[in-house]
Structures are given as structure tokens and as C-alpha cells.
Amino acid sequence: MSKQPPPYSEEQQPGYTPASYYQPPHPQPPPQQSTVIITTTTPSLVPIGSGPTHITCPSCHAQVLTTVKTEATSRTHCWALLLCLVGLWPCVCLPYCMDSCQNSNHYCPNCNAYIGTYQS
Ligand SMILES: [Zn+2]
After folding, report:
1. Which residue from 55, 88, 93, 111 could staple onto 83, CB 3.0 to 4.6 Å apart?
2. pLDDT above 80 (res 5)
């Protein structure tokens, strides 16, 4: 004689009010954090361009025309590597000669203070 498992078809009785009538307070979703993180790439406070710029030196407070010294960046090396890869290795020095591929460091001609870097 085999015992049959009890059927799992226990239907709710009509008229029976389940506990779901009582609506538990829904947990409030956490408020959307809308904080905008402003990251500035140029640490300088003065707007500078790729070329010599008229600014007030933050160090000696004189109206100066900045002296620009270009500096090879990782991007410059990337361009050189790229030229190597495509077989244009004779042009490898090209990015190092192009100001647009390099950072422009601005210095004060008056006190030689570093003012900022223009990243092209
Ligand atoms: Zn200065």
C-alpha cells in the first residue's frame, strides 16, 4: 500500500482575508545621489592656452606674457609608437616636434614660477 503525498492544492477559502490586506510600509528606496564630481585637468586657476598667454603671475603678481616650454607626454610617446607600428618609423620624431602633441608648460618670465600646463 503506497502512501500518497498530500496534495499541495490548498486553495484559500473565499472570504478569507489574508494578511496581505495589511500593507507593510514599503522600504523607501535610497535617494538618488546626484553629486556631480567636477574634475579639473588643469590645476592652474588662470586660463592659459597653448601659446604664450598674458596673465597675472600668481607668484609675483605682475602682468606677464608667459614663457611656454613644451614637454613630451605619454600621448607623444603613444603617437611615436603608433607611427612605428604602421611603418612610419622615420616620422617617429614628428610628434616630438609638434606642439599639439605635447603639453605646454607656462612659466613666468619675471620670476620663473611655474604657472600651469596647457594640455592640448
Ligand atoms: Zn612671476
Report:
1. 88
2. no
**Enclosing domain of residue 100:** 48-119
Provide the domain count of the chain. 1
Compute the distance from residue 108 Cα to the ligand 1 centre, in Å: 5
pLDDT of residue 35: 60
- The side-by-side arrangement of strands in the sheet containing 67-72 is 67-72, 102-107, 114-119
What is the value of pTM for the model shown? 0.53
55 is a domain residue: yes
User: Which amino acid belongs to residue 68?
Assistant: V
Interval between CA 97 and ligand 1 midpoint (Å): 27
* Ligand 1 midpoint to CA 33 (Å): 42
How much distance in Å is there from the Cα of 58 to the middle of ligand 1? 7
In this structure, of 2-11, 42-51, 94-103, the range with the lowest mean pLDDT score is: 2-11
DSSP alpha helix (H) spans, the chain: 74-85, 94-97
